[in-house]
Write a structure and sequence with these properties.
Number of helices: 8
Largest sheet: 5 strands, antiparallel
Organism: Azospirillum isscasi
Radius of gyration: 22 Å
Pfam families: HTH_11, WYL
Order of helices and strands: HHHEEHHHHEEEEEH
Distance between the termini: 27 Å
Protein name: YafY family protein
Domain WYL: 138-203
InterPro entries: CBASS_pafABC_assoc_protein, HTH_11, WH-like_DNA-bd_sf, WH_DNA-bd_sf, WYL_dom
Amino acid sequence: MSRAERLIDLIQCLRRHRRPVSGHVLADELGVSLRTIYRDIATLQAQGARIDGEPGVGYLLQPGFLLPPLMFAEEEIEALALGIRWVADRADGSLGAAAQNALAKIAAVLPPDLRDRMDASALLVGPGEPIVGDGVDLAIVRRAIRSERKLSIAYRDRDGAPTDRTIWPFALGFFDRLRVLVAWCELRGAMRHFRADRIVAVTALEARYPRRRQALLKEWREAEGIRER
């Protein structure tokens, strides 16, 4: 492995850890010595990477640092292409179009040989069951999640009974046949799951909800027994 490749791998390792990670853990993940980790951390810091920490304490990469140019292994390219093609085929219209645009942008910056391998990838997205149509434009829901703003929704339960809710949306799950919105429901005073095809109408509110989205997501994962990846 060249030094440039090792530095890129070190950046990726740091990105995977959201909390300070020790030099010993980084050395084990990369298969190098602790002394090499210290030297590479210093090199990245000199190149402008905002890496907080010090030997014996742990390191945390602050967001906003890119190490150009983009470098992908062949399997990473296949994984990206497969995932993006699944989104393009199975997500809602605007997100599917965004996935196709993203794939085109990635292909545009790849060297010609890697671009050809992406185009010729033998990993295909097979046909799935028909997707239940969404009741509303999910782009509105995604914007509310990103901005941590409340939504007012008109909803029908499994028996078709109508109800109006004010919710704090913090996650949107994409399954093979349907989409599920995860939110804190002010009416119930608890977290609830709302099938997107049963949402009759949605209105984005100006009010921000009082808790951070990441905190709500973490609490929901713990309640559902879902491990963070």
